[in-house]
Specification:
Helix 2 crosses helix 3, helix 2 crosses helix 4 and helix 6 packs across helix 8. The protein is globular and about 60 Å long. The protein is 42% helix and 22% strand. Strands 1, 2, 3, 4, 5, 6, 7 and 12 form an eight-stranded mixed sheet that branches. The chain is of the alpha+beta class.
C-alpha cells in the first residue's frame, strides 16, 4: 500500500484527541481495456494500482459521523438517521451513501469518528471515488462485525453512485477496488459478475499511467447522455431484429450493420464502439494470458481510436498524450483510460525503455500543450481490506 496508515493514525489522534481503533484501505484502478462497456453489461479488464485511500477511525455509540479529509483539510458531520447529500462538501456523500445502502440491507451501522487520507489522484479517471467507497465499506464492515461477499460489495458501491449520487455508472470501478490481487488484472463479466484474475506477467513490458493534468470534464449529464444513446441503439436493434437483448452486450457487429439505415449516426457509432470494444477485451484477455505485449498493444491502440471517433470521450490533451506515446520507441500501445474528457492514458511500454519513455513523453507533452503532466508506474495491487494499526503516538 502507498498511504502510510500510521501517519493517518497520528493525524486522527491530532484532530480528534483519541487513538483510532480501526483502519481500512482500498486502491484506485486503471482500466487496461474495456471502456464504457460496463453499463452495457459487457466485459472489462482493469487492474488495481499502488495508490490507495485509507480510512482510520473509531466507532461511536450514536448515529453521528464526524469526518475529516486530511488531504483536503476539510471537516464535516452527518447524521446517519438523516442521510442526505452535502452540497458544500460532496466528498462526504460517498461515506454517507455507503452507510445508506448498508442501512437498506439491515446491517449494523453506527456512527464513527473517522479520517480519510490517500494518494489516488482525484478527477483523472483512476477511480478515487470507488476507492473511497470501498474503504468506507471495509471500515463499516469492521465496525459492525459483518462482511459482504465481494460481488455484493461491488454492487453496493454501484448503488451508491446510481441511487445516492444520481450517476448511471457501471460496476467495474468498485469491483476491481474490492477484488484486485497483486500481479493480476481482473477480467470481469459485468452481467454475471463472473471474474477471472489474469496474471500480468509480461517478460519485457510494464504499464505506465500518464496524467494529462486536466481534470475530467465528464459531467453527470454527459455520462448519462452516453447511456441514453446506447439505449436508443438497443431499442432499434430489438425492434428491427426481433431479439430480446436488453443491452448492447447481446448484439454483434453484424447485427448493428443490419439495422444501420434505421439508426441515426450518433447512436450507431456509440453502439459500434461498445460492440467492438467487447470483442477487443475478450482478445486482450487472451493476449495477456499468453504474455503477448504486441497483440495487447495493438488492441489498446484500436480501443483509443474507437473512443475518439465513435464514442467521442477523448480530449485534445488525451489525444496529444496518446499520440506522442505511440511515436516513442518501446511503446506497444497507448489509450485513454477511464470515463474520458480528461484524466489519464495507460501505456504498455518495453521494460528497458520505460525511463526514457517517461522522460520524453512528459517533455513533448509540455512542449505541445504547455501543461506539466505526470506519470505513474504501478504493478497490479491488492484489493480493499483491513489494515493493522501499529502506533498512533
Amino acid at each position: 500500500m502507498s498511504t502510510d496508515v500510521n501517519h493517518a493514525a497520528k493525524a486522527f489522534k491530532s484532530y480528534f484527541g483519541i487513538t483510532p481503533l480501526l483502519a481500512a484501505r482500498a486502491p484506485g484502478r486503471v482500466n487496461i481495456i474495456g471502456e464504457h462497456t460496463d453499463y452495457n453489461d459487457g466485459f472489462v479488464l482493469p487492474m488495481a494500482i499502488e495508490h490507495d485511500t485509507v480510512i482510520v477511525g473509531r466507532p461511536r455509540t450514536d448515529k453521528l459521523l464526524r469526518m475529516r479529509a486530511e488531504n483536503l483539510d476539510l471537516n464535516a458531520e452527518a447524521r446517519l438517521d438523516a442521510r442526505v447529500r452535502n452540497a458544500d462538501q460532496p466528498w462526504t456523500d460517498y461515506l454517507v451513501g455507503v452507510a445508506d445502502e448498508l442501512f437498506k440491507l439491515d446491517k449494523p451501522v453506527a456512527g464513527a469518528d473517522l479520517l480519510v487520507m490517500g494518494d489516488v489522484p482525484v478527477g483523472c479517471g483512476l477511480s478515487s471515488s470507488a476507492a473511497l467507497e470501498m474503504a468506507a465499506l471495509v471500515f463499516f464492515e469492521q465496525a459492525g462485525a459483518f462482511k459482504l461477499e465481494d460481488a455484493e460489495a461491488a454492487r453496493l458501491g454501484q448503488r451508491v453512485e446510481n441511487n445516492f449520487l444520481g450517476l448511471s455508472t457501471g460496476i467495474m470501478d468498485q469491483f476491481i477496488s474490492r477484488c484486485g490481487r497483486e500481479n493480476h488484472a481482473l477480467f470481469l463479466d459485468c452481467r454475471s459478475y463472473d471474474f477471472e484474475r489474469v496474471p500480468v506477467a509480461f517478460d519485457d513490458a510494464l504499464f505506465v499511467i500518464a496524467n494529462t493534468a486536466c481534470p475530467r470534464g465528464l459531467t453527470a449529464s454527459k455520462y448519462n447522455e452516453r447511456v441514453r444513446e446506447c439505449g436508443q441503439a438497443v431499442d432499434v436493434l430489438k425492434s428491427m431484429l426481433g431479439k430480446g437483448g436488453a443491452k448492447l452486450r447481446d448484439y454483434e457487429l453484424a447485427d448493428l450493420l443490419d439495422v444501420q439505415e434505421y439508426l441515426e449516426d450518433v447512436p450507431f457509432r456509440r453502439a459500434r464502439h461498445v460492440i467492438t470494444e467487447n470483442a477487443r477485451t475478450l482478445e486482450a484477455r487472451e493476449a495477456m494470458r499468453a504474455g503477448d505485449a504486441e497483440s495487447l498493444g495493438a488492441l489498446m491502440n484500436a480501443s483509443d481510436e474507437s473512443l475518439r471517433i465513435d464514442y467521442e470521450v477523448t480530449s485534445r490533451e488525451l489525444d496529444v498524450l496518446a499520440g506522442i506515446a505511440r511515436e516513442l520507441p518501446g511503446c506497444f500501445g497507448a489509450r485513454m483510460t477511464g470515463a474520458g474528457f480528461g484524466g489519464c492514458t495507460v501505456n504498455l511500454v518495453r521494460r528497458d525503455r520505460t525511463a526514457s519513455f517517461c522522460d520524453e513523453l512528459l517533455r513533448r507533452y509540455a512542449s505541445e500543450t504547455g501543461i506539466t503532466g505526470e506519470v505513474y508506474i504501478s504493478a497490479p495491487a491488492a484489493g480493499a481490506g483491513s489494515v493493522a494499526l501499529q502506533s498512533a503516538s
